[in-house]
Amino acid sequence: MAEEVANVQVPPDEELNKKQYYGITEVAAMFGVNASLLRYWESAFGMQLRKNRKGDRFFTPQDIRTVQLIHDLLRRRKFTIDGARDFLRKNKGADQRYELIQSLQRVRKFLVELKAQL
């Protein structure tokens, strides 16, 4: 599981916002999971994804950030599905706090790399 969390390849916000929609296979590749797991999370967490007439799911950059938070809760922090659902329901600002934590971790990584170069 720890390796799975480390292998998440979500691009930075600037690159993520270049496209308006991402297909389910692209998002599954970002997180290293099956598309069926993303479909399950969609139903379990009540996500409202855009679908075409054929039924293909499309993720916006905000949807991808939500999936990233769900992935973090379930894989890294070891929440159950019910526990993660309750956490998201009770903590309405959880996604903003998670994004803040992610940006601080990127700054920390940059500073550690800068220190190593000195």
UniProtKB/TrEMBL annotation:
Write the record's keywords in alphabetical order, separated by commas.
DNA-binding
Domain HTH merR-type, chain residue ranges per copy: 21-90
**Record's signal peptide:** none
Q: Which residues form a coiled coil?
A: none
Q: Which GO terms describe its molecular function?
A: DNA binding; DNA-binding transcription factor activity
| SMART domains cross-referenced by the UniProt entry | HTH_MERR
The name of this protein is MerR family transcriptional regulator
